[in-house]
Every structure is written in C-alpha cells, then in structure tokens.
Amino acid sequence: MKEPASKETLWFFGALGRIAAQLLESLIDIFGLFYRLISASGPQLANYRLLGREFIRQVYYIGVCGWPMVALTGLLLGLAIIVYAVAQLARIQGELLIGNLLVIIVVRELGPVFTALLVLLRSGAAIIVEIGAMALDREMDAMELMGVEPEIFIGVPRFWGLIISLIILYFIFLISAILGGYLFGQLFTEIYWQGLWLSFVGALTWQDLFISAAKILLFGMSIGAVAIYYGFRVKEHLSAVAQHISRGAVVSLLFLGVINAVLSILGYS
Hints:
By secondary structure, this protein is mostly helical. The protein has one domain. The chain is built from 9 helices and no strands. The longest helix has 39 residues, at 98-136.
C-alpha cells in the first residue's frame, strides 16, 4: 500500500496553490486596471486641467532626469559590442557584419529590455511609493469626497508619462549605443564611421523597427499598469510599501519576459 502524503508535502502544495491563486487574481485585477486606464484616456480628461501638468511632471522625472543612466548603459553596451565584435570579425574578414550584431543586440533584444529594466528599477518603484504614500495619507478618500476618481487623476498621467518617457529613453539608448560606442571604440580599435553606418542601416529593416516599437509600447504599458496597481494596493501601513514594491517588480519582470519572448518568436520565427 502507498504511504499517505506527509503533512509537509501537503503544506507545500497547499502554499504553492495559494500563491498561484493570488498571482492569478492579481493578474486579472491588473488587466482590469489596464482597461480602465485606457478607457479613461479619452475626451473626458478635458475636465481635469491638472492632468496635463501632472503628465509633464512625470515625463520630466522619468524621462529627463533618467536619461544619464540610460545613456551610460547604452554607451557601455555599444562600446562592448563594437570593440569585441571588430576584434573577432577582423580575423575572418567580416567587419561589415557588425551592423547585423548592432541590430540584433541593440535594436531587437537588449535595447528594449535594458531600457525597460532601468525604468522599472528607477521609476516603477517610485510610482508605487508615491501612490502608496498618498493612500496612507488618505488623499484617495479626499479625492472621492470631492467627486474626483483617483484612478483617473493619479493613474492616467503616470501611466502615459511612463510610456512616453520609455519611448524617449529607448531612442537615447540607441543613440548612445551606436554613436557613443563608435566614438569611444576609436580608443581601442580602428573602424570607419561610414562603414559602420552603412553596415547598420543595411541590416536594419522595417520589421525590426516595428517589433522594437511594439516591445517598448507594451513594456511601458505593463510597467505602468503594474506600478499603479500595487501603489493603490497599499492600504495597511508603511511597511506594506516594501512588500508591494517587491511584488510589483516580480510581476513586471514576468510581463517583460513573456512580452519579449512572444514578440521575438512571432516576429522572427
């Protein structure tokens, strides 16, 4: 006869099931919040004059204040690719293939992912803390008493501000990786700008631009929706903010991985 399952095994599977159920419930709520944020971004926003000012503030703090870190990361990535690739490709007379490597690594894959990760680490957590602090100070209740919907007044400008900022930062990342990587690469190797540029443009296709734009747009939407959702979930005490930051980071990384894998498979398979 089979021995009955131990209490530890039953406890483990029970805990695993509860975690899976909570994650599924959170994902459903996040998709619901995403739908409300999209549907609220319409003509009715004209009634909220302060939303434009808040949107500009979010673009400033996320995009303008965050560009040095993104530019530095792109510069280091471009420098590493150019220096390493030229040294290796020169052995097989394949220097012109460096454009293909830049397109594959910078434009298609690592560029969107690195930019999204930097925004997630710097701004995703900040949005959760900011909204959580507002919730703890009962500012949400005050808005509801004044007839203002918190999800529209607080969520919509941060949602679109993060998306627009991510698009801007992605272009900064590309410029830093290609142009900055070439300029600093001159210190370690010899490569002509005309050859690098022609190789890059020749390897770049409209499909690459479309897939990369889709990744950036969906990355921004997912990070924004998740950060706003977990910010509104802070209702108990200040220590709950750290817990929701951790959960938001995990869920955002899950979304980023799934979106990147699906678009890469659909676009290049």
